[in-house]
Specification:
This protein has 290 residues and is α+β, with helices and mostly antiparallel strands. Helix content is 21%, strand content 40%. It has 2 domains: 161 residues, 2,3-Dihydroxybiphenyl 1,2-Dioxygenase, domain 1 (Roll); 111 residues, 2,3-Dihydroxybiphenyl 1,2-Dioxygenase, domain 1 (Roll). The chain is globular, with a radius of gyration of 18 Å.
């Protein structure tokens, strides 16, 4: 059944973004300073393929749960394959390294992508325990991920949620800044056409002209691909020169004016633009009116 965060059959949504950071406490302080409500730190686990015992995946997270979509901030928890991948990306820079897209049936989409010739990791089932106001629940996900290195931007995945209420709890989806939705992830691309073609194939959605770049519109949310020069001007610095990478998050607020007095805030078109800051790495927020 379709809900605010569960797409209908055949739909694809922008489920969440992923920051890789070294210090969860510093990231929490930065997010709360902007008026976001932040969830407690949680370690991710998955079943051992031989014993079935739950083991650390290598990362844990804090999250900003929006009424539509969410922002995930990941930290290292264990020396696993995923943990080592995480540290390799973090050694390059902190910041946005993950984009996740929601579908009704991640297992079916995994099979379709493999049949289309994309290099996929094995389908996985992740879970993490979350506290609710009435006790503990398990947030569970089926995740289809491209093989490491297929996408230079980082970890690109499609997933299906199996316990939506465990994540989107009302106490975490209300924010002092009036945040409503993750509307887009913004990319910087030396070759926007090439970057857009890769994501269009993965998402089975067309890339269309959009301002100076291209946009892949989803059933909820979007990817915006900017030429590197335009992205550098937006951010104020080149995030990873010569490499396609994630550089911004477009988030809707009830009224972006609540953040207009923040240091380095500036208006770009209809968006209030703010830098992520040191705790979250290079990149920018683009706050739009909901």
């Amino acid at each position: 059944m379709k809900t605010a965060n569960l797409p209908a059959a055949g739909e694809v949504s922008l489920d969440h973004s992923g920051h890789f950071v070294a210090d969860a406490d510093a990231a929490r302080a930065a997010l709360e300073g902007l008026g976001f409500t932040v969830t407690p730190l949680s370690a991710q686990v998955q079943p051992d393929p031989e014993t079935g015992e739950e083991r650390l995946t290598g990362t844990g997270n804090i999250c900003v749960m929006l009424p539509e979509g969410y922002l995930e901030i990941l930290v290292h928890t264990a020396d696993t394959a995923i943990g080592r991948e995480f540290m390799a990306a973090l050694d390059r820079r902190a910041g946005l390294h993950l984009a996740a897209f929601g579908v009704t049936d991640a297992a079916a989409r995994h099979a379709e992508l493999e049949a289309a010739g994309l290099d996929m990791r094995p389908l996985v089932h992740f879970s993490r325990e979350v506290a609710t106001e009435t006790g503990q629940e398990t947030a569970a996900f089926t995740v289809a991920r491209l093989a490491a290195g297929v996408m230079p931007e980082g970890r690109i995945q499609i997933l299906t949620h199996h316990n939506e209420p465990a994540l989107w709890q009302p106490r975490y989806t209300t924010h002092a800044n009036g945040a409503q939705a993750l509307a887009a992830i913004v990319l910087s691309a030396p070759d926007p056409v090439e970057t857009a073609a890769r994501f269009a194939r993965f998402l089975d959605r067309p890339a269309l002209p959009h301002g100076a770049g291209l946009c892949i519109a989803l059933d909820r949310g979007a990817l915006e691909i900017l030429p590197e020069a335009e992205a550098t001007a937006l951010v104020g610095e080149a995030v990873e020169p010569g490499r396609s990478c994630f550089v911004g998050l477009r988030v809707t607020l009830a009224d972006p004016a609540v953040l207009a007095d923040r240091p380095r805030a500036r208006q770009v078109g209809n968006s209030l633009v703010l830098p992520f800051g040191a705790a979250l790495g290079p990149g920018v927020w683009l706050f739009d009116r909901a």
